[in-house]
Amino acid sequence: MQQFAVTDDFLREFGKLVHLFAQLEVQMKFFLCGLLEMPMHEIILSTDPAPSQRFSTILTSVGALKLGEDDWNELKTIVDEIEPYRALRNDVAHSFWANGTRDDSIRPVKMKTQRGRPHPVGFDENERDYQLEDFQA
C-alpha cells in the first residue's frame, strides 16, 4: 500500500499559498478602490464573487484608464507575476492530491469538463507534478 502523498510539509505550504493568495486579492481590491475612488463595499459588490483571473482583468483594464503608462506597466508586471500561482492555488483548493512521478512529488487529480465531456486530470505520469520546493518559491 502506498503512503499518503500529502505530507505535513506539503499541507503547511498549501495553507501558506491559499492564505497569501487571499491576502493578495484583498490588497488588489484596496488598490482598485483607490483607482476608482470607490468605497470597499462597492468594489466588493461589483467584483464578488469574481474568479480572481477575471478580477485581474478588471484591475489591469481600470489601470489602463486611470494610470500613467509607467505605473500601468508596473501593474501589469505584478499581475503577470501572480498568474502562474493562480492555477496552483486553484489546484490546492479544489483538487485531490496523489503521488507524482518524481521522488517525493505530488500531482493534482481532478475531473474537468471540456466541451461537455469529462476530462480526467492527474492520472497520466507525464502530467505536471510538484515537489516541496515548488511551493517554497
Question: Can you tell me about this structure?
Answer:
It is a single chain. The protein has 137 residues and is an alpha+beta fold. It has 5 helices and 4 strands. Strands 1, 2, 3 and 4 form a 4-stranded antiparallel beta sheet that branches. α3 packs antiparallel against α4. The relative contact order is 0.13.
Concise synopsis of the structure shown:
Strands 1, 2, 3 and 4 form a 4-stranded antiparallel β-sheet that branches.
Summary tags:
137 residues, alpha+beta, single chain
Radius of gyration from CA coordinates? 18 Å
Q: Which range does the strand content fall in?
A: 15-25%
User: How many helical elements?
Assistant: 5
- Total number of strands: 4
Give the N-terminus to C-terminus distance in angstroms.
32 Å
Instruction: Tell the overall outline.
Output: elongated
Whole-number average pLDDT? 85
Outline the fold blueprint.
Elements: H1 8-36, H2 40-47, H3 52-66, H4 69-94, E1 96-99, E2 105-114, E3 117-121, E4 130-131, H5 132-135
Helix pairs in contact: 1-3, 1-4, 3-4
